[in-house]
Amino acid sequence: MNMAKGDISRFPLSSNGHEVYDVVYVGEIIPQYMSNDISNILLNEYVFVFSTMLRGCKGSSFYGHVEIDFMRHELISSFNGRIRERGSFHVLDKENLNINEFLEIVQEDTEYGKQIIANLRSQSISDSDGNVTYIRDFRVSLVKENNHNGFANLPKLELGPEFEAKLKWDLARKHLDYLDTGSSVLLGLVNLNHSESEHSESINKVREIVEQEEELAKVEHKRAFNNYLSIRSNLMYICKGTEGL
Q1: What are the distances in angstroms from CA 26 to CA 48, 74, 98, 160, 243?
Q2: Phi, psi dihedrals of residue 107, rounded to the nearest 5°
Q3: From start to end of the chain, where are the E strands?
Q4: Which member of 83, 119, 157, 166 lies 3.0 to 4.6 Å from 87 by CB, making a disulfide possible if both were Cys?
Q5: β-pairing, 19-25 with 87-91?
Q6: Contact, 143 vs 113, CB < 8 A?
Q7: Average model confidence (pLDDT) across the chain
Q8: How far, in Å, CA of 245 to CA of 242, rounded?
């Protein structure tokens, strides 16, 4: 994934400077299915990032608010200023992680297999004027095992819907970046071979195909991004508002 200079310093994203960050790796505790991409993704590529508002006034409506992101660990540097000052790294093992008074990561066994849940405690629900109307807890599915899947009944791992959507958006963006890089390389080859018309013509034909694929990739990237936003907008633990209820 191509990152503009300075992008790495913006991870994790900050809302108002009152967050503490907890980066949680679950790859060692989940079942490993060789035929399932999610196993490899959680083992080698992605972590969950929890941002909890703990540095502001305890009487404020946002105090204790927890946000969850799912991102490639290569984007999270321990030398990042915010991580260094307000971040902690955790590895989920056999014991649950009681991270703070508002957040606990727990493992459960169900009839479908193991699942990992984020328990968000005492979350404030506000009205359109920002007034807290009530307090409630949320159970957020991070990843679960489904051993009753489909016709073949093959076990698989499934991310929570918002994290699956984030992964698909990331993959669409990665594919778009790949095609964009390829198109740029081909353009460079055309410029280098401008005196050899036969070579330039062949390269241009390939470049036209790549550019067509790039346009399709742009559509898919936009669709994946909009789907991610749509799913997040319908999850109450994210918006924590009473509008539409």
Answers
A1: 8, 16, 14, 14, 34
A2: -110, 140
A3: 19-25, 46-53, 66-72, 87-91, 97-100, 103-110, 113-126, 132-146, 156-159
A4: 83
A5: parallel
A6: no
A7: 83
A8: 6
- Quick one: which of 143, 141, 133 has its CA closest to 240? 133
pLDDT in tens, 67-82: 999 999 888 876 667 7
What pLDDT, on the 0 to 100 scale, is given for residue 144?
Answer: 93
What's the per-residue H, E or C state across 131-150?
CEEEEEEEEEEEEEEECCCC
One-letter amino acid for residue 97 of the chain: L
In the structure encoding, which two tokens stand for residue 98, read together? Answer: 């009681």
Cα separation of 27 and 10, whole Å?
25
Amino acid at 109: D
CA distance 143 to 92: 13
Residue 205: phi and psi, rounded to 5, are: -65, -45
* Predicted confidence (pLDDT) per residue in 175-230, tens digit: 999 999 998 888 888 777 666 667 778 888 888 899 999 999 999 999 999 999 99
Which H helix or E strand runs over 85?
A: helix 81-86
Q: Phi then psi for 164, rounded to 5 degrees?
A: -65, -40
pLDDT of residue 140: 96
